[in-house]
Amino acid sequence: MTSSQATGSQDSTDQGGAEGRGPVLSAVAWPYANGPRHIGHVAGFGVPSDVFSRWARMAGHDVLMVSGSDEHGTPILVQADAEGLSPSDLVDRNHRLIVEDLTSLGLSYDLYTRTTTANHHAVVQELFAGAHANGYLVEQTTMGAVSPSTGRTLPDRYVEGTCPICGNTSARGDQCDSCGNQLDPVDLIDPRSRIDGESPRFVESQHFFLDLPALADALRTWLDSREAEGTWRPNVLRFSKNLLDDVRPRAMTRDIDWGIAVPLDGWRDLPTKRLYVWFDAVIGYLSASIEWARRSGDEQAWRTWWNAPEDGAGPRSCYFMGKDNITFHSQIWPAELLAYDGLGERGGAPGRFGGLALPTEVVSSEFLTMEGGKFSSSRGVVIYVRDFLDRYQPDALRYYIAAAGPENQDADFTWTEFVRRTNDELVSTWGNLVNRTASMIAKNLGAVPEPGELTDDDAALIATVRGGFATVGRLVSEHRQKQAIGEAMRLAGEANRYLSDTAPWKLAKSSDEGDRARMATVLHVAAQAVTDLNTLLSPFLPHSSTAVHRALGGTGAFQPMPVVEEVTDLDDVSRTYPVITGDYSGAPAWGPVDVVPGTPVAPPKPIFTKLDDSVVAEELERLGGARA
Fold first, then answer.
1. pLDDT for residue 434 is more than 60
2. What is the sign of the dihedral through the CA atoms of 212, 217, 222 and 226?
3. What is the spatial distance between Cα 248 and Cα 267, in angstroms, rounded to a whole number?
């Protein structure tokens, strides 16, 4: 397993790359291992992170894209009990399902692993021990919510009630999404269990708390630096800074027997005390990087993306998630890192991992709804990735998410809009351009032709399309993917307009040698435009990029794809599990490449499948049946 960047000579700054070619950590939210992924999940973390990572490799950055399945916590125990399974059997099954889903969608992880590995446990315990040694994990007595009927501790997020601050009646036990304030379950008015509606009872229990007040100044300084750099989405930054207005210590351990043991004398052998699932899950970005390095043959390779060099210019790290996870990535995870590094008001020193770099960007998407309703597996308002891909092309889903997804505001997935965008944009604009170009070349010439002297219109189209590398690259680098794919598709429209204006099919019917030569030039220019547009669109549409590449005589895969690999746990040889990995070094460089005259071109097959209007009624009927 090696990280990779594309080969090629294009300058990433000239072609819309982030300044320089430094390392980029693409840290992707960890899906909870309670079942397969639905399209709302991958709209928030999956497709955006993959588009960015593929572009960054193409632009010459050394990218490490990591994530895994989040497998601890009370909800896993609740679901395992309901299905009559052990927690281990449940997460083993669901992890494999998630791996298959994400691979089918083409998400190019360098390593997608899981939180139940021995490596992850060891890394989490090191972070806890370091933060504790620096004085930022303090023992306190707290009131924990317990289910009266089962005696099991209820996680904060499984307790709902009325917010005592703003009166929101659906506040959670960890925070109120309406006013953004941090809460504890005992604070809620009329609390109730999300599992069965019971009113929980509250009991005293000893736990370790992350001393956020002692880290608040350092957190604010860090957030101020992010604001000064201007790279964060404004809604994420505002929400994150507001969290600091009422910051309080937050419990990092739980009364539960499924999770990671507390690595302290007097605690590690307690059977019902474990680290909070959200304490351990965010550390997965680091543990996955370390696991990737260990599997690569260079156990220290992870430090490129985590330890800032002596000149202070740390690596770029982009964290992708939905907006409900902002608090854990802009407050809890940075606080854990600051505590481990010893950078709060109590001081301290880093542990054996050295000083760990804080996130440079928290890229949060808004929510995707479906046909006007919130995604809900229990109510049937859902379509799973695997079911979607059984019926439709993966790039059709990727295109919809990129073009109409919840990038900076909530978005609603509708079947009507999915069919419209597939037919009117993917098929009629991009697919049609590829097909008509390759068809005319194959029918009239059999190979990419030599061009004659270019007219102003010829040169203008080539220059316009090639200008897209700077514009689209800059937009992707700034996490404005909706604008980026819109610009790329606008350029495809310009190429279609060029073909309509020049009408090479009319020139082909002429017996005049000048008209035939002009036809060859036009088709050469069209082939050049298609080739460059395919590169521009390939981070968004990696599956179809290979079909486009081959339509104009190319060979092999254009965008490398992820693979599922069965591996043995590095520290427990009795255990195996699937991971997602891949060799992405063959990705094209981010920049134009001249087409080669004489390259054979055969009659093409359609790139995208046009959808019948009946799809809408069929899918709405299927959705209605699931709801019933």
1. yes
2. positive
3. 24
- What's the pLDDT tens digit per position in 248-286? 999 999 888 899 999 999 999 998 899 999 899 999 999
450: three-class secondary structure by DSSP? coil
DSSP 156-219: GGGEEEE-TTT--TTEESSB-TTT--B--GGGSEEEEETTT-PPPEEEEEEEEEE-GGGGHHHH
Q: The pTM is what?
A: 0.92
Dist. CA 359–CA 221, nearest whole Å: 13
Compute CA distances 527 → 119, 457, 467, whole Å: 50, 15, 17
Six-digit token pair at 281? Answer: 């899950």
Nearest residue to 52 (alpha-carbon basis) of 289, 465, 360 = 360
> Is a pLDDT exceeding 90 seen at residue 308?
no
Single-letter code of the amino acid located at 516: R
For 182, 251, 453, 498, the CA distances from 193, given in Å and listed in that order, are 18, 19, 74, 62
Q: What is the C-alpha separation between 53 and 68, in angstroms, rounded?
A: 16
Q: Which letter does DSSP use for residue 592 in this model? A: -
In 397-508, the DSSP E strands lie at 411-413
**For residue 16, what pLDDT is reported?**
56
Q: Are 576 and 567 in contact (CB under 8 A)?
A: yes
Predicted confidence at residue 13, as pLDDT, reads: 40
For residues 25 and 410, give the distance between their C-alpha atoms in angstroms, rounded to a whole number.
Answer: 26
Amino acid 495 reads: A
